[in-house]
Design a protein that fits this description.
about 350 residues, alpha+beta
């Protein structure tokens, strides 16, 4: 705030539309209410005039901004508009904040450059808060928010944000540092292995858990089949799903290192290229990620049935967004990958 030259000025209330209140105004209704009617920094609207007259305000003090200064709402709005791209929408500025939300009708992945977020927050007096990149954003959900901390800031702060974003667009072919990658609707083949489920001795718990996660992201389990812990049978069922041309195959059960767990070897024998058997994330370290002729294949560990957030929740949205998961993607999951109840 140093160097700002904002001044206070008394004006007739009827001439105050569009001006900025220099202080809080209190309303008192005896026996009913006593509190703030308008806060400092409120921009007076035509509809506010009767309310101001009702509390006896014929004149009010307003802030007269000097050249090169911006009110918090104006600055927050300029910052947010710099990030506008296809699939995004902005809320109206309020108390120095603007929310940046998804305008998509489907869930999407957040695509965010953390270096830009850091550079903007280093400017001081202003803030940009975002989700982490690859977070799932629901339709209408919030991706980021701009915030101006003091009531008045130098116009140069907003201009600096605009420059940072414009430079990013120039380097990246026009796309901004905040974006969304919509999730496709996948039709998924689900193979549940395990003699105890195949024989009917115990109830299948995997199917409902996988359906819940998949459907929350806009996709569906098109077909579920069951197999005993027999490697050749599992291979045959994987080939069956592949012939159906589903978008993805998920195999559950038999993913531990016990000698009678046959699923990882069966997925490899079916012809899948294994990206990784295991992830540096807890829960979900025994997840398998692979591709069969370009079709994603995932082997899920038992934690998916009972833990609220696992490696499956991290990787599935990226697969649905059309990304090809690499070994480097798996390795990177260790940082921040410990999820404790």
């Amino acid at each position: 705030m140093s160097g700002l030259r904002t001044r206070l000025k008394e004006v007739p209330v009827r001439e105050a539309v569009g001006l900025v209140l220099a202080h809080d105004l209190t309303q008192i209704i005896p026996g009913q209410f006593k509190g703030r009617l308008f806060k400092k920094g409120h921009v007076v609207a035509e509809a506010d005039i009767p309310k101001l007259l009702d509390i006896g305000k014929e004149h009010i003090y307003i802030m007269e901004l000097a050249e090169g200064e911006l009110h918090e709402d104006d600055a927050a709005g300029r910052m947010a508009r710099a990030f506008m791209d296809d699939g995004l929408l902005l809320t109206e500025p309020h108390e120095g904040k603007v929310a940046i939300k998804s305008a998509l009708a489907v869930p999407a992945l957040a695509v965010i450059d953390p270096d830009v977020v850091y550079a903007i927050n280093e400017l001081g007096d202003i803030a940009l808060a975002t989700l982490r990149t690859d977070a799932v954003v629901k339709p209408g959900g919030q991706l980021a928010a701009t915030r101006v901390i003091p009531l008045v800031v130098p116009e140069a702060k907003a201009a600096a944000v605009e420059t940072i974003v414009a430079d990013y667009r120039a380097r990246g072919g026009g796309k901004g540092p905040l974006g969304l990658k919509p999730l496709r609707k996948f039709r998924i083949g689900l193979l549940t292995t395990g003699g105890e489920v195949y024989s009917g001795r115990i109830e299948d718990k995997f199917g409902p858990a996988v359906r819940r996660i998949v459907e929350a992201l806009g996709s569906e389990v098109a077909e579920q089949r069951f197999s005993p812990d027999d490697r050749q049978t599992i291979v045959k069922e994987i080939h069956y799903f592949h012939r159906q041309s589903y978008d993805m195959i998920i195999v559950t059960g038999g993913m531990s290192v016990d000698p009678d767990d046959r699923t990882p070897a069966a997925i490899a024998e079916a012809g899948a290229e294994i990206v990784s058997y295991g992830t540096p994330m807890l829960p979900g370290s025994m997840l398998l990620m692979g591709y069969l002729d370009g079709m994603p294949v995932m082997g899920l560990p038992g934690c998916v049935m009972h833990d609220p957030y696992t490696s499956f929740d991290v990787l599935l949205p990226r697969v649905l967004a059309g990304e090809t998961i690499t070994r480097a993607d798996i390795v990177s999951m260790g940082y921040g990958g410990l999820h404790v109840r």
